Structures are given as C-alpha cells and as structure tokens.
Amino acid sequence: MNPVILARLQNLCRDEAAFQMLEQILAVELQQLEQKLERAYSQVEQHKALFQVITRLREPLNVEEIFQATATEVRQLLKADRVGMFRFYPNSGWNDGEFVSEDVDGAFGSAMAQKIHDHCFGEQFAVYYQQGKIQAVADIYNNGLSECHIQILAQFQIRANLVVPLLRGQNLWGLLCIHQCRGPRAWQATEIEFATQIATHLGIALQHAELLADLQTQVLERQEAEQATQLLNQELQRAIVELQAVNKELEAFSYSVSHDLRAPLRSIDGFSQALLEDCYDTLNESGQAHVRRIRAATQRMGQLIDDLLNLSRVTRSDMCLELIDLSRLASDICTGLQQSQPKPEVEFVIQTGLTAQGDSHLLRVLLENLLNNAWKFTAKHPQARIEFGAIATDNCIPVYFVRDDGAGFDMAYAKKLFGPFQRLHSMNDFPGNGIGLATVHRIVRRHGGRIWAQGEVERGATFYFTLAPGEVEA
After folding, report:
1. How far apart are CA 49 and CA 70, in angstroms?
2. What is the pLDDT of residues 231-281, one digit of tens each?
3. Are 102 and 84 within 8 A, CB to CB?
4. Is 40 exposed, middle or buried (0-12, 13-18, 19+ CB in 10 A)?
5. What is d(CA 437, CA 289) in angstroms, rounded to the nearest whole number?
6. Do residues 148 and 120 make contact, with C-beta atoms less than 8 angstroms apart?
7. Angle 64-66-67 (CA atoms, 0-180°, nearest 5)?
8. How confident is the model at residue 105 (pLDDT cuts 50, 70, 90)?
9. What rounded mean pLDDT belongs to the chain?
10. What's the predicted TM-score (pTM) here?
11. Taking 70 as the threshold, does the pLDDT of residue 7 lie above it?
C-alpha cells in the first residue's frame, strides 16, 4: 500500500496494535480487489478472443485457418502449453483420429500427424461427449483415469487436460483439447465456460464448411453437367448435319432409282411387248414363254423399286401427330378389301373405340399392310376370321393387335419377319415382295413403340404393336 496513506492512517489510530489490525484488513481487501480485477481482465480478454472467433466465421476463411488462429489465441489467453483440435476418422466408431490443428509451447513436442487409437472411447465415452460432456482433469495421475487413457495422454507429456466436444450439428466431429504439460492445473469455471463457448462456435464453423463443401460439389456437378450437355449438343449438331447429308444422298438415290432405273425397265418391257406383238408368228412357244418371263421380271423389278421407295419415304417423311380413330380406319380398310376381292366366308371383328396419337398417313399404311397380310394368308381357308383390337396393360400403354386364323408361321423364324425382302412362304403360295412388315416395323418405331408376333403353322398369326414409348410384356 502507498506509504503516505499508511502514515495518515497510523496518525488516526489510537495505538500500534489497532493500526496493524487495520493494515491487515486493508491488505486482504486489496488482495481480493486485485483478484477481482484480474478475473475481470481475464474475462474481457476471453470475450475478445470469442469475438475474434465469431468475426472469423463471417470472413471467407477455410476451417483450417480458423482452427489455427483460434488455437493460438486460446493458448496465449489461458497460458496453456498446448491447444489442439482433434478429429475422429469417419466410420472409425470414434476410436481413431488425429490432431488437425495445434498451437504448442516450444518446450513440448507436437501432437500433429500422429494417429491415435483408443479402443475404449467409442464404446464407453463417445455417446456422452455427443451429449455435451466436458472433461476437466487437474492431474491425470490423480483423477481415476484408466491406465490405457493415461498412456495415451502421457505420450504427449500431458499432466492436466481440458476436453470439450466439437459437434457438427448433432454429430461428434472431434474434440477441443487444452493441455497443461508443466504440471497439474485446476481448471477454473470461467476457463471451462470459455472453452465451451469456443467449441460451440468452432462447431458452427464446421457446419459452414460442410455446407460450403456441399455447395461447391453441387456447383462442380452442375458445371460438369453443363459441359456434358454442351458436348452432347455439339455431337447432336454434328449428327444432325450428318443426317441431313445422308437424307440428301437418299433423296438423290431415290431420284436415281425413280428415273434412271425405271427408264431401262420400261424399254425392256416395251420392246418385249413389241416383240410378242410384231414377231408372234415367228416365235415358237418356247420363245414366247421366254419373252413373257422377261416382261414379268421387269414388272416385278418395277414393283420392287416402288416398294423400296415407299419404305424410304416412311423413314424420311415428316410426321404430323393427331388423335386417330383406329377402329374407323381399320373398318374402312376392311370394307375396301371386301369390295375389291369379295370373300363372304371371311369374318371381320373390329373392336370399337380404339384411338391413338399418331400420324394418320403412316397409321393407315401400317393397318393396310397388316390387314392385307391377314386377308392374303387366310385366302386358302374356306372359313376365316380377322380381328383388330387392343389389350390393356398395367402401365396404361395399349397393345394393339391384328389376328387371323390363316396360314400362320413357324416361331423359329419369327426374328426374320420384319426384315426387308424376308419371306416365310413361297411366291407360288402367297405373292408379295417381303416389304410390308418391314414398313410396318419402321412406322411403329417412328411412333416410339415396338412390334412382335406370335404364330403357329396353319393355326394363324397375331401381330402385336404399341404406338408409345414404354415397356410392355410381350
């Protein structure tokens, strides 16, 4: 105390004993005031440190920088020998981990980059730390710790230990560890509270880092998706250009077939006919037969050219989608067949109310081919039945069908049905060029559907088809 103040107090006292008693009382009071002042100063410094941590959370810093700066400030403020952030390895059951950040007195070794295994922690203690447990140990040798726990702490020269959980959300991410290595230390309540607040805000930093990582991942995935889309668009543009070139070549080829190939065929057919008419008397029966075969072959070749051109047009023509009354369309086609080739022994059964979204011209071609086939392949049966209908499916995609009880086919050859110029019957039995079902197949595919068939020799055939994308059970 100030000597001048003591001298004045001594003059006021009656005797020396009273003065000494007063001096002792004042000394105790002064000491308590100094302790309160020191604690207040410490709390101010703690609040400053806490404010610094909160400020860093608002800055564009990564979690490692926040950890390092916080470890340095906390160690200096608490006058500890080591402050570190310990992270548990993912999927380790909280038994394994390592220090990822540290500030340590130069007199003691670093705990960084050392893998730590504690087979007891995950099973016995992790659940309590996840609920907010704090461990404050004044002396590791006099606190009832297990021998294995003491060994883990002793390897880092730890004598006193303050451990607070680092929670990322509700999950135990790691531990905030404050070590005293020089000797035992009784941790004050204010120090424990300070460490708890620091750990809480570091947990917020961990959550921010996780959200930022997720956001960066989403941004990266979106950028990759955009790049992939750009590449696909470029490839699509190239494919469109190539397709346009192919279409132009097909148009040129179709023109060549339509004009350049027809001219010699017409000449062959015309001169063959003139030969029969002008030289009929000079040709014997064998010669006349040969000329007739030449004419039939040229006419068949002309029909094949027509069929090929029609198949090409089916593939390349523009589509105009609208709601089509398939029942009415099938009825019109069947009426036309009866009028052109009357067969009273053929029974047509057409399900009413069948509609589909599609191109009217292409769907007419489709049904004409299927119904014409059914008409053709029932010709040798004295009684015949031709059906057109639909079957409901679980995924609401109707399966249409054309069924007859005519010549049928062997299912072993079913895969050949829809190839151009593929025939399962001889020309002598049933005329045709083998283009009709190939045309039907392409029309169905252009509508996004699929077609298949079932049949049995002399028991008839059924052709099933859909006109919309989607899987249906065959």
Report:
1. 8
2. 999 989 888 888 878 777 777 776 676 667 777 888 888 888 888 888 877
3. yes
4. exposed
5. 33
6. yes
7. 65
8. very high
9. 82
10. 0.47
11. no
Round to whole Å and give the CA distance between 474 and 464. 8
**pLDDT tens sequence across 43-88:** 666 566 666 666 655 555 577 888 888 898 889 888 899 999 999 9
Kindly state the tokens that stand for 415.
């895969």
Nearest Cα to 81, choosing from 178, 185, 200? 178
By the 10 Å C-beta count (0-12 exposed, 13-18 middle, 19+ buried), 220 is classed as exposed
Are 382 and 345 in contact by the 8 Å Cβ rule? The answer is yes
With cut-offs at 50, 70 and 90, classify the pLDDT of residue 163: very high
Q: 334-378: per-residue pLDDT in tens?
A: 988 888 877 768 889 999 999 999 988 889 989 998 998 888 888
